[in-house]
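Q: I'm writing up a methods section and want to include an example of the input and output format. Could you take the sequence below and give the corresponding predicted structure tokens, formatted cleanly so I can copy it straight into the document?
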Amino acid sequence: MSCLVLSDVAYAFPDGTPLFSGLDLALRPGLTAVVGRNGAGKSTLLRLIADELSPSAGSISVDGEAARPPTVAYLPQLLVDAPSRRTLADELGVAARLAALARIEAGEGSDDDFARVGEDWSVAERTRALLDDLGLPTDLGRPVVELSGGERALAALAGRLLAQPTVLLVDEPTNNLDHRARARVFTALERFVSTGRRIAVVVSHDLELLERVDATVEVRSGRCRVFGGPYSLYREVIEAEQSAAAQALSGARNEWRTEKRDRIEGMEKASRRLAQGRRVQAAGGMPKILMNARRSSAQESAGRRRAVHDHGVEQARERMLAADAAVRREDLLRIPMPDPALPTGRIVVDAVDPVAGRIHLVGPARVRLAGPNGSGKTTLLRRLFGTGPTGGDDDDAAHVPWALLPQDLHIENPGTRVVDAIHAVRPDAEAEQVHAHAARMLFTGDAGFRRLGELSGGERLRAALAVRLFARPVPQLLVLDEPTNNLDLPGVEVLADALQQWRGALLLVSHDDGFCDRVGVDEVIRLG
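A: Here is the clean output for your methods example:
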């Protein structure tokens, strides 16, 4: 039985900020989900296992051997742009084998060709069968640039599956996918682990996928904790623990208050005894030598009682602090939505598209672009708005200031700090305003000085939102292409609430029906 083991692993970010220290984790065959807040280290954990990053201490192994390709295959959250000549066969990693097979079948094969094909004589049939299972075109010569974002992600997953690794690592595999494509991914992952010898580890916020896993790993505060079963069982355990922790904290606080009250009462009693003795001595009712002896004894007794009370208070305080540490307090994302001051009758978008037809938005309209993967939703947004991130009211399509949050958040300047990226869209803003805005998006303190290239997918999305919502003039139209990608589950809820309160126009692409319902979409444009 295969086993993935992380032993005493340590890792720090390039700026020296520690992430993991003394991390231990063991995973058995099956489908395992990795969950946690944005920035907790989920993607970094996968990259460490995949040998893309090197730990500063500890070891990572599969069946006793160092974890590295081809034993481990990794599908990252963000895919690099494909060169224009890159074909589907190149993307799948089978182009060289297919070319060698073609030469062999034509009677022109060399020893190198036979070595390259090995025993995989059915590579073409096996590849096309997998592409068909995933709902992808089976033309292996098709340029990758012709695929939609969702299709490209499926093709990348197919390439990892064809490699037949022992450990498959996938980061947010259902981003950008419609319902049918998501179901195909679920089936592919379950089939991968069905032999009982393989391990699949997925980072995801897709609740349906999270309910299909065999185990759940929570990444929190530099530690990994394994829970048997799906996400719902993990949540039940955490909620039960937090309920017990809250009760324990309440009891510990009451005990601490009681100990403090007892100490104060003890001190008051001792003070009254001493005062009474002084009055007796002043009245001459007791010999001085006896009075001094009694006063000395009373002071010693008071000191012992005070020490006992102080010890009791300190012990109660330590129990209270321990109980308080067990209660989770997560920083909450706050999305500061500016006032767009958009008049009800203002024309926002008026354009005629060759595929979608006329697109006409007036006032604070909330329009959803819907359709299966490959139907052209992202392409339509590019035709209307380019690549953003912001634009004015002099565009061909838009008649108001707008901001675009694209599906793929590629960073042009990875060395730029978060606060500098925010400040760049509004140079006249005070530094205090910039840092306050960053803090509301959970970039507090030193986090605001992190480089964009160091951010996780969820952190990149928060940074991109922060930039667009800080821009001036205030955008009156938000164009969001799969905005829930890479956000953790609490972040998705906060974003939905913020968009629900948004008083400007909204053009939204999302495969998440529940999210669209929460936002309050009032019109749907269907493509495909």
